[in-house]
Structure prediction request, 226 residues.
Amino acid sequence: KAGVTQTPRYLIKTRGQQVTLSCSPISGHRSVSWYQQTPGQGLQFLFEYFSETQRNKGNFPGRFSGRQFSNSRSEMNVSTLELGDSALYLCASSLAPEIKAFFGQGTRLTVV
Amino acid sequence: GENVEQHPSTLSVQEGDSAVIKCTYSDSASNYFPWYKQELGKRPQLIIDIRSNVGEKKDQRIAVTLNKTAKHFSLHITETQPEDSAVYFCAASSPYSSASKIIFGSGTRLSIRP
Prediction:
């Protein structure tokens, strides 16, 4: 069974631009969560989707948004990028919300 | 708001000795507690999890204990080996709750000395 796939793996963007990251969950998994990982802040919860519905959202500004499609694939979008948005963005999928979540390799975003 | 505190932030133990990482959580509604291991440059991987109806769970050299009254849970690694070197994250959540969000601790960097 294929694991959680995130694309792209690496991304360099300029301040003010927007970016879209993609996450394909394990087949059959309907829950997808997104996290921001930085050296100083650890793993910060962004949002979680289950069956195309956003169940919960972390404490991030409205520039961070996401969605989930009917095939459970998820995207997250960051608009008006700031230098502080540079981080590793991880998604995790699970059969049921939060239970036994499996992480993707992440997308490393660098904002210059 | 919800918070998970994890200690210590770094831990160095001699190969073969035991390592213990401790976490406390603030949300009394939390009932699911996973632990993840993240090796350098790799994704976090689930190594063990426990639900609130269980006080202890063991999987070979790894065990997790939970004290719901004190809101504490701990990871115990026995007979440590070099491949145990990694960053370990604890987490707490209340799955199925519409207001749930999984909260991670800040991580513990475990180093195993040969």
